[in-house]
Design a protein that fits this description.
The complex is a heterodimer of chains A (944) and B (499). Chain A has 944 residues and is an all-alpha fold. In chain A, 72% of the residues lie in helices and 3% in strands. Among the domains of chain A are: 219 residues, no CATH class; 230 residues, no CATH class. Chain A is elongated. Chain B is mainly alpha-helical. Chain B has one domain. Classes of the chains: A mainly alpha (944), B mainly alpha (499).
C-alpha cells in the first residue's frame, strides 16, 4: 500500500508551495522538499524488499473500457530510477532556492517542478502501458511549463514550444506503438506484455511497433535527428536543466528502451537502428560540444553525446552492454547534474556563461572550481571516478561486437574517438573557465557562491567518488536488482571492479585521454573551421524554417482552395460531385432502362426547342433585365404547355396563373434594385462556368434519363384509384390537395398567411427611392396609369372574378380549385392596381387583406375540426350528391368549404404581398418623402 | 398511424422546445427585453433537458424505443444526443446574451432562430427516415443562415451568412438527389427498410453507391469535412462568436449522429464507398491541420481545427464498413467501439468547442471586425480565469492526457488499430502532431504580456454567467479526462433503435 504514495506524495507536494506562497523563500523550499523527502524514505524502505528480489504491485481499476488501470509496479529498474529522480530532485529543490531571483515566483517554480517529478515517477513505476503513456505526456506538458518558466523571454517560449512539439509528436507515435502492442498482446498490462516477447517479435506488425516506439523514445531522449530541441531547452533556469537533462526528462526515452528491451529487443532491426542512431548522436553531440561558447550549450551537446552513447550500448548485441547502459545512466545523471549546477553558479555569480568572457575563475570561486573539476574529470572518464568505470565497460563491449563482420573493428575505434572528444570538451569546460586566462567584461564581480548552494554539488561529487572507487559496494546491489528484470544473465560473471588489469580497454582509454588532450590543444583550428562550416545551421532556425516551409505549403494550398471566393468554392464542390457521378455513370452498362420511350411528335419537339431557346436567351440577355424576364416567360409558358400536353391540366392552369403573378413580383423587385448590373466576369471565367454548367447539366440529365427509364412503383395509382370512391372528386390533384393531403394543405396555407404577414411587417418602414430611368438610361414614361388600360381593367375585373369563382366551385371534379381560383382572383385585382395605381384602388377596394387571410385560415381550420364534433377524426371529409332544380346534379363535399378557406387565404396573401410591394412603387422623390409617408399613413388608416 | 399519449410523451423534449419558440415569439411581440427573452429561451431549454431525463427514466421510459411515426424514433440514442444538443444550445444562449448585450441591434429574434435551429437538430438526431432527416436538416440550417448574418451591418457577418446559404443549398440539393436515387432504386425512404433491402441484395448497383455517396457529400458539407470544408473558416470567422459556437457544436453533433444512425440501420458494406469516406477523413485531418498552421485569426484557427476533428471522428464511419451487429442481432465488438468512440468524442468535442468559442465570445468585441489571435494576447492579464480555461481547452483539443480530448483521441486510435486502418492511424498521428504546434502557439499567445491598457475587463451578469459556463465546461472536460467511466457507461446505454 505504500507504493502509490511514492507518486502521490510529490503530486500533493505540487500544491504545497502554492498553499505556502505567503511564506518566505527558505520555508517554501523546505516545505516543498518535505513530501518528496518522505517519498524517498518510502522508496528506500520498499527498496530493501525489492533488493531481496520481490516485485511490488499495486493496482486500482480506472477506465477498464480503455484498458487503463492505476497499476504500479516496483522492481529493480523502477527502484534505480526512482532513487535518481527523487534524490536529484531534492538536491535541485535546495539548489533552486538560492539560484532563483527574488523576483521569480517560487511557488510557481516548485509547483511545476513537483508536477514534473510526479510524472517522471509515474513513468518509471507504471505497470500499465496506457498509464505509462499518460505520465509520458505529462512530462512533456510539465517540462513545457518548466522550460518556459521565464515566460518574458522569447527564447524560453520558443525553446519550450519546440521541446513540447517534438516530444509531444513523438509521444503520439509512442501512443500508437503502445496501442499496437496492446492490440497484439491483448492487454496493456506491463506484466503480460513483458511475458509476450515472442508473440510480439513474431507479429507481422513488429517493425511498425518498433519504429513507432523508437520515434517516441528518440524524440524524448534527443537522439539524432531529433536532437535539436535539447540545446534550445537551455533557456530554462539552470536548476531545470540540471534536473531535466541529467536525470529525468531525457532519460525517460532511455528508460522506455530498457523497460521494453526484454520484449522488443533481440532482433536485428533493434540492433541496427539503435546502434547506428546512438553512434551518430554520440559523434554529433561531441562535435557540437567542442565548438559551443555558451557553457550550457556545451553541456547540452555533451548530454546529447552521452545519451547517444547509452543508446548505442542498448543497441549492442553483447551480453553486458545493457548493464553498461544502465550503469552509465546513473553515472551520467550524477556528474551531469553537478556540472549543470556548477555552471549555474558561474552564471549566477558572473552574470554570463559565455566561455569567451570567462577564465581563471579558480581565484574567485575556488570551491566551485574544485567541484567542477572533479565532475568534469568524471565526464572525461578519469580513473577513480564513476564515469571511468562505465566508459571502460563501454569500450570493453564495443570490442566484442561481431555483427559487422570484417568491419567490426570500426566500432571500438569510433568509440575511442568519441571518448577522446568527450575528454576534449571536458577539458574545455574545466580548464578554460576555471584555470586559464582572466575573466573579461563580466557584468558582475565574481565571488564564491553561498554555502547551501554548493551543498547539492558536494553531495553529488561525493557520490561520484564513492561510485568510482567502490562500485560494487555502492551500486552493485542496485544494478543487480535492476538487471534482474531486464536481462537476467547479465550480472553473472561480472564484477564491478575498478581495476581489471592492463588490457585493451584500458589502453583505449589511455589513448582517448591523449587524443582528447591533442584535440583540446588544437581547438582553435577546430573552432574556426567548425564555426565556418557547421555552425551556420542553427537548429532553431532549421526547425522554424521547417515550420515556415510547411506553413508556406499550407498557404499555397490555401490560395488554391481557400480563396474566400464563393465561386471557387462552388467550383470545387461541383467538380467533386461530377467526378463522383461520372465514375458511377461510366460503370453503367447502358443509360437506357427497360421502360420504352414515347414517340416524339412535332409539337413536343417545337416546344422543347422553344423552351431551350428561352432559357439560353434568358442567360444571354441577363444584363437587360426586362428582356431576360420576357425570355424567361417563354420557358415558363412552354412548361405550362408541357403539363397540358402530358395530361395534367390542373398543373398547367396553376402554372399559367402563377407565372404572371411571379412576373409582376419580379418586375417590382427589379424596379427597385440598383439599375447597374455588376461587372461581367472575364472571358476565361465565363468559359469555365459554361463548361462546368454544361457538364453538370449533362450528367444530371443522364442520371435522370436513366432513372426515368427504369421501372419503379409510383404512388400515383393509389390516388387515381381512390379519388372518386374515397373523396367524391374527379380532379385528382384537387382531391389530393384538399382531402388526401388536407393536413399538408392546412399547414401550407397557414405558412402562406404567416409569410404574408411577415412581408407586411418587413416592408412596413421601408424607404425606397423610385428610379426615374431604366437600366439603359431611358426615362420611364411620365404617365403612370394609361386611361385605356384602366377602363379595360375595370370592365374585365368582374368577369375575371367570376372566372375565379367558377374555377373554385368546379375544382373538385374538373381542373380548378381553391388555389387556382384564388390566384386568378388575385391577378385580376392586381391588374386593377397596376391600371389605376395603389392609392386609387385602395380608396375603392376596402378589403382588409389581413382579415381576409384570417377568415380563410379560420374557415379551413374550422372545417377540419368540425368532424371532431361528430366523433370523427380531424379532417374527415363528407360528401353527397344533391339534385337541385335548374342546375342539375350537384355534389357538395365538406372539402369545398375547406377549399374556400384555401381560396380566401391565397387571395389575401398574394394581394398583401403584391399590394404592399406595389405601394412602395408610388412615385415620389426624396424631397417629397414626408408627404409620401403621410400618404401611406392615411392609406393605412383608410384600410382600417 | 395514430398519435397516442405515449408517443407525445416520448416527443416531450421536442414539444417543449417548440412551445418555447412560440412563447418567446409572443414575449418579443409584447416587450423587447433582452434579458427576459434570453431567460425565457434558456428556461425552455432547461425544461426540455429535464424532460429528457424524465422520458428516459420514467415508467414510460420502459417503452423506449418509441417509434413515434415511421419517421421519428425516440430511443436512448436520440435522447442522449438531444441532451447533448440542449446543453450546447443552452451554453450558446448564455454566450449570446453576453455577446449581444453590448450591441445596439434587435437582439431578441436571435433566440427564436437559435431555438428553431435547436429544434431542427433534435429532429435530426431522432430521424429514422429520409424525410425527417431532410426536414430536420433544413430546420436546423435555415435559421443558421440568419444567425450567421445576424450582425448584418458588419460586412463579414453578412458575407458569412450568404456564403453559408448558397453553399448549403448546393449541399442540400446533393443530399436530396442522393435520396431520390435511393428511392428510385429501392422504393423505400426509411433507414431500416432501406437497410433490409440493401442487405438482401448481393451486389450493390451503381445507383446505390452514387445515391449514398451523394448523401454523404451533402452531410459531409454540413460536417465541414474536406474537401467540402471551404465555407467553415469563412463562416466561423464572419459569424458572431456564439453562432460559431452553435455551428461547431449543435449542428456537428446532430449531423454526425444521424450519419452514424444511417450507416448503422442501412449498412452498405461497400468497400469502395468506405474507401471514399476514409479518403475524406484523411484529407480533413491533413487539410484542417495544415491550414490551421498559418491561420492567425482565432476563429479561423478553431474552424480549421474543427475540420481536423471531424476528420478524426469520421474514422468511426469508416469502421462502420463492417456493420455493428455480429449477425445474431447483437452488437458486435467493433460496433460497440464505434458507438462508444462517437459518443465520447462528441461529448469531449462539444465541451471543448463550447469552452473555446465561449471564451472568444466573451473576450472579444462584437463590433471589431479583425479578430486575430493577438486579440486574445495577454488575456491572462485581463481575464485570468478565462485564459486558464482557454489554455486547458486548447490542450484538450490537442489531445493531451487528463482532458476529455485525450479520451476521444484514444478511442479514435483504438478504432483505427482495431480496424487495422493504418493509413488513418498514421494521419491521426501526423495531424495531432501538427495540431500540437498551433494549439501551443495560441496558448503561449494567451499568456504573453501586452501593453494594450485600453482593453478593460468587461463586466455584467452576462459576462459573469458566460464565464461560469466556460468554467463548468472546463471542469467537465477535466472530469471526463480523469474519470471518463460515467460518460462511457452513458454512451454505452445509448443504443440506436434496431439493435
Amino acid at each position: 500500500m505504500l507504493l502509490p504514495l511514492i507518486i502521490l506524495l510529490p503530486l500533493i507536494g505540487s500544491l504545497v508551495p502554492v498553499l505556502a506562497r505567503r511564506a518566505r523563500r527558505t520555508p517554501i523550499a523546505l516545505l516543498t522538499a518535505l513530501l518528496p523527502g518522505a517519498a524517498l524514505a518510502i522508496t528506500i524502505w520498499l527498496g530493501i524488499q525489492v533488493l531481496k528480489g520481490d516485485i511490488l504491485h499495486f493496482a486500482l481499476p480506472w477506465v477498464p473500457q480503455m484498458g487503463l488501470a492505476l497499476a504500479f509496479r516496483f522492481d529493480g529498474l523502477s527502484l534505480l530510477f526512482t532513487l535518481l529522480i527523487l534524490g536529484i530532485g531534492l538536491l535541485v529543490i535546495v539548489y533552486a532556492r538560492y539560484y532563483l531571483d527574488p523576483k521569480d515566483s517560487m511557488p510557481k517554480f516548485y509547483g511545476f517542478l513537483m508536477l514534473f517529478m510526479t510524472s517522471m515517477l509515474g513513468i518509471v513505476t507504471s505497470d500499465n502501458l496506457m498509464l505509462l503513456w499518460f505520465f509520458w505526456e505529462l512530462t512533456s506538458v510539465s517540462s513545457f511549463l518548466l522550460i518556459s518558466f521565464w515566460s518574458w523571454s522569447s527564447n524560453a517560449r520558443k525553446g519550450a514550444r519546440m521541446a513540447f512539439a517534438v516530444t509531444g509528436a513523438g509521444g503520439l507515435c509512442l501512443l500508437a506503438s503502445l496501442m499496437l502492442m496492446g492490440h497484439i498482446v491483448g492487454s496493456f498490462s506491463l506484466d503480460t506484455v513483458l511475458h509476450s516477447g515472442e508473440t510480439l517479435r513474431q507479429s507481422p506488425l513488429y517493425p511498425l511497433v518498433l519504429i513507432l516506439l523508437l520515434l517516441g523514445a528518440f524524440t524524448k531522449s534527443a537522439q539524432f535527428p531529433f536532437q535539436f530541441w535539447l540545446p534550445h531547452a537551455m533557456s530554462a533556469p539552470t536548476p531545470v536543466s540540471a534536473y531535466l537533462h541529467s536525470a529525468t526528462m531525457v532519460k525517460a526515452g532511455i528508460f522506455l528502451l530498457i523497460r521494453l528491451y526484454p520484449v522488443m529487443g533481440d532482433t536485428n532491426g533493434w540492433y541496427y537502428i539503435i546502434t547506428l542512431t546512438g553512434l551518430i548522436t554520440m559523434f554529433y553531440g561531441a562535435y557540437m560540444a567542442m565548438v559551443q561558447y555558451d557553457l550550457k550549450g556545451l553541456l547540452a551537446y555533451s548530454t546529447i553525446s552521452h545519451l547517444g552513447l547509452i543508446t548505442m550500448l542498448l543497441g549492442l548485441d553483447t551480453r553486458l552492454s545493457t548493464l553498461a547502459a544502465v550503469f552509465h545512466v546513473v553515472n551520467h545523471a550524477i556528474f551531469k547534474a553537478s556540472l549543470f549546477m556548477a555552471v549555474g553558479i558561474v552564471d549566477h555569480e558572473c552574470g554570463t556563461r559565455d566561455s569567451r568572457r570567462l577564465g581563471g575563475l579558480r581565484r574567485y570561486m575556488p570551491y566551485t572550481a574544485a567541484l567542477a573539476t572533479v565532475a568534469g574529470a568524471s565526464m572525461a572518464g578519469v580513473p577513480l571516478l564513476n564515469g571511468f568505470i562505465s566508459k571502460e565497460m563501454f569500450l570493453t563491449e564495443t570490442l566484442q561486437i561481431q555483427s559487422l563482420g570484417g568491419l567490426s573493428w570500426l566500432i571500438p575505434a569510433l568509440a575511442t574517438l568519441g571518448s577522446a572528444l568527450s575528454v576534449a570538451y571536458s577539458l574545455r569546460l574545466v580548464v578554460d573557465v576555471f584555470y586559464r586566462g582572466e575573466p573579461r567584461f563580466l557584468p558582475k564581480q565574481p565571488h564564491e557562491a553561498p554555502r547551501p548552494m554548493r551543498l547539492p554539488i558536494e553531495i553529488l561529487i561525493i557520490l561520484c567518488l564513492a561510485v568510482g572507487m567502490f562500485p560494487s559496494f555502492t551500486v552493485g546491489a542496485l544494478l543487480n536488482s535492476a538487471m534482474s528484470v531486464v536481462a537476467t544473465d547479465a550480472m553473472s560473471g561480472q564484477s564491478l571492479a575498478v581495476w581489471h588489469g592492463i588490457n585493451l580497454p584500458l589502453m583505449m582509454s589511455a589513448a582517448a585521454m591523449l587524443l582528447g588532450l591533442i584535440i583540446y590543444l588544437m581547438r582553435n583550428i577546430l573552432h574556426s573551421s567548425f564555426r565556418r562550416d557547421f555552425l551556420k545551421t542553427d537548429a532553431k532556425l532549421v526547425f522554424e524554417r521547417a515550420v515556415q516551409k510547411s506553413i508556406a505549403f499550407g498557404e499555397r494550398v490555401l490560395d488554391r482552395i481557400d480563396s474566400r471566393s464563393l465561386q471557387q468554392y462552388m467550383l470545387v464542390m461541383m467538380t467533386l460531385m461530377l467526378i463522383m457521378a461520372v465514375q458511377g455513370l461510366v460503370k453503367m452498362p447502358g443509360l437506357m432502362g427497360p421502360v420504352a420511350l414515347q414517340p416524339i411528335d412535332p409539337f413536343v419537339l417545337a416546344g422543347a426547342i422553344a423552351m431551350c431557346i428561352g432559357a439560353i436567351a434568358t442567360v444571354n440577355f441577363q444584363r437587360y433585365r426586362l428582356i431576360a424576364l420576357i425570355c424567361l416567360s417563354i420557358t415558363e409558358l412552354m412548361v405550362a404547355l408541357a403539363f397540358l400536353k402530358f395530361s395534367s391540366p390542373d398543373l398547367a392552369l396553376t402554372q399559367l396563373v402563377v407565372a404572371p403573378v411571379t412576373l409582376i413580383l419580379m418586375l417590382l423587385t427589379l424596379f427597385f434594385l440598383p439599375q447597374q448590373t455588376p461587372r461581367v466576369s472575364s472571358g476565361i471565367r465565363i468559359l469555365r462556368d459554361l463548361v462546368l454548367a454544361a457538364a453538370v447539366g449533362t450528367v444530371i440529365a443522364s442520371i435522370n434519363f436513366a432513372v426515368l427509364t427504369d421501372h419503379y412503383d409510383s404512388i400515383g395509382k393509389f390516388f387515381t384509384d381512390n379519388a372518386v370512391s374515397g373523396a367524391g372528386g374527379h380532379n385528382v390533384v384537387n382531391v389530393i390537395l384538399v382531402d388526401f393531403r388536407g393536413f399538408d394543405t392546412l399547414g401550407e396555407i397557414t405558412v402562406l398567411g404567416i409569410t404574408a404577414l411577415g412581408v407586411l411587417k418587413l416592408l412596413n418602414r421601408m424607404k425606397l427611392f423610385v428610379p426615374t430611368t431604366s437600366a439603359e438610361n431611358r426615362p420611364w414614361a411620365p404617365e403612370y396609369f394609361p386611361t385605356i388600360f384602366g377602363s379595360v381593367a375595370q370592365i374585365v375585373l368582374p368577369l375575371a372574378l367570376m372566372v375565379a369563382f367558377y374555377f373554385f366551385i368546379r375544382g373538385h371534379n374538373l381542373p380548378g380549385g381553391g388555389f387556382i381560383g384564388g390566384l386568378v382572383a388575385a391577378s385580376a385585382l392586381i391588374m386593377m392596381y397596376t391600371a389605376r395605381g395603389v392609392e386609387w384602388t385602395m380608396r375603392r377596394l376596402r378589403i382588409d387583406f389581413q382579415r381576409l387571410i384570417a377568415t380563410g385560415l379560420l374557415i379551413a381550420w374550422l372545417t377540419s375540426a368540425a368532424p371532431l364534433l361528430f366523433g370523427h377524426n380531424f379532417l374527415t371529409t363528407w360528401f353527397d350528391h344533391f339534385d337541385i332544380p335548374l342546375i342539375g346534379s350537384l355534389e357538395i363535399a365538406s372539402a369545398l368549404v375547406f377549399d374556400l378557406g384555401v381560396f380566401l387565404t391565397v387571395v389575401g396573401a398574394t394581394m398583401m404581398i403584391l399590394a404592399n410591394l406595389g405601394r412602395l412603387a408610388t412615385p415620389y422623390s426624396p424631397a417629397r418623402e414626408h408627404r409620401q409617408i403621410d400618404g401611406a399613413m392615411s392609406a393605412k388608416k383608410e384600410m382600417r | 398511424m395514430n398519435l397516442t399519449l405515449t408517443h407525445l410523451f416520448a416527443l416531450l423534449p421536442l414539444i417543449i422546445v417548440g412551445i418555447t419558440v412560440v412563447v418567446v415569439m409572443l414575449s418579443v411581440a409584447c416587450r423587447r427585453n433582452h434579458f427576459l427573452n434570453a431567460t425565457l429561451s434558456g428556461c425552455g431549454l432547461i425544461l426540455a433537458l429535464l424532460s429528457v431525463f424524465w422520458v428516459q427514466c420514467s415508467d414510460h421510459g420502459s417503452q423506449l424505443p418509441t417509434l413515434v411515426s415511421p419517421m421519428v424514433a425516440v430511443d436512448s440514442y436520440s435522447l442522449f444526443y438531444i441532451g447533448l444538443i440542449l446543453v450546447a444550445a443552452l451554453a450558446c444562449i448564455v454566450f449570446a446574451y453576453a455577446y449581444f448585450d453590448r450591441l445596439k441591434v434587435h437582439r431578441e429574434e436571435f433566440y427564436l432562430l437559435l431555438l428553431c435551429s435547436t429544434l431542427g437538430a433534435m429532429v435530426l438526431v431522432s430521424a429514422v427516415h429520409m424525410a425527417s432527416l431532410f426536414i430536420g436538416l433544413e430546420l436546423m440550417s435555415v435559421p443558421l443562415y440568419g444567425m450567421a448574418a445576424y450582425i448584418f451591418k458588419r460586412q463579414q457577418s453578412l458575407e458569412a451568412g450568404i456564403k453559408y446559404l448558397v453553399l448549403s443549398a448546393v449541399a442540400s440539393s446533393f443530399l436530396l438527389f442522393g435520396m431520390a436515387l435511393l428511392f428510385a432504386a429501392y422504393g423505400e425512404l426509411g433507414f431500416a427498410e432501406l437497410g433490409l433491402k440493401l442487405v438482401s441484395v448481393d451486389y450493390l448497383d451503381t445507383w446505390t453507391i452514387i445515391g449514398v455517396g451523394m448523401m454523404v457529400i451533402g452531410l459531409a458539407f454540413k460536417l465541414s469535412v474536406a474537401p467540402f470544408h471551404m465555407w467553415t473558416s469563412d463562416v466561423y470567422e464572419g459569424a458572431p462568436a456564439p453562432v460559431s459556437a452553435f455551428l461547431a457544436t449543435v449542428s456537428k453533433v446532430a449531423v454526425f449522429a444521424v450519419l452514424v444512425r444511417f450507416f448503422i440501420l442501412a449498412p452498405t458494406f461497400s468497400v469502395k464507398l468506405h474507401t471514399v469516406i476514409a479518403v475524406l477523413a484523411v484529407l480533413s485531418m491533413l487539410t484542417g491541420n495544415l491550414l490551421a498552421l498559418r491561420s492567425h485569426n482565432i476563429k479561423r484557427l478553431l474552424g480549421y481545427s474543427s475540420i481536423a476533428h471531424l476528420g478524426y471522428l469520421l474514422t468511426a464511419v469508416v469502421v462502420l464498413r463492417s456493420g455493428v451487429s455480429d449477425g445474431a442481432g447483437e452488437l458486435s465488438e467493433s460496433g460497440q467501439l464505434v458507438l462508444e468512440a462517437t459518443g465520447v468524442y462528441l461529448v469531449g468535442y462539444v465541451l471543448t468547442s463550447l469552452g473555446t468559442f465561449g471564451v472568444v465570445a466573451l473576450a472579444t468585441h462584437a463590433d471589431s471586425a479583425n479578430r486575430d489571435t493577438s486579440e486574445l494576447r495577454g488575456l491572462a492579464q485581463r481575464r485570468p480565469v478565462l485564459a486558464v480555461c482557454m489554455a486547458f481547452m486548447l490542450l484538450s483539443l490537442a489531445g493531451i492526457p487528463l482532458t476529455a480530448g485525450f479520451i476521444g483521441k484514444f478511442y479514435v486510435l483504438a478504432l483505427t488499430v482495431n480496424g487495422e486502418l493504418w493509413w488513418l492511424a498514421a494521419s491521426v498521428i501526423v495531424g495531432s502532431a501538427i495540431g500540437l504546434y498551433y494549439y501551443l502557439r495560441t496558448i503561449v499567445e494567451l499568456f504573453l504580456p501586452t501593453d494594450d491598457a485600453t482593453v478593460t475587463a468587461a463586466n455584467g451578469r452576462g459576462q459573469a454567467l458566460g464565464a461560469l459556463v466556460v468554467v463548468i465546461a472546463a471542469a467537465l472536460t477535466l472530469w471526463i479526462g480523469i474519470f471518463p467511466e460515467p460518460i462511457i457507461t452513458m454512451v454505452n446505454s445509448a443504443l440506436p433503435v434496431g439493435l
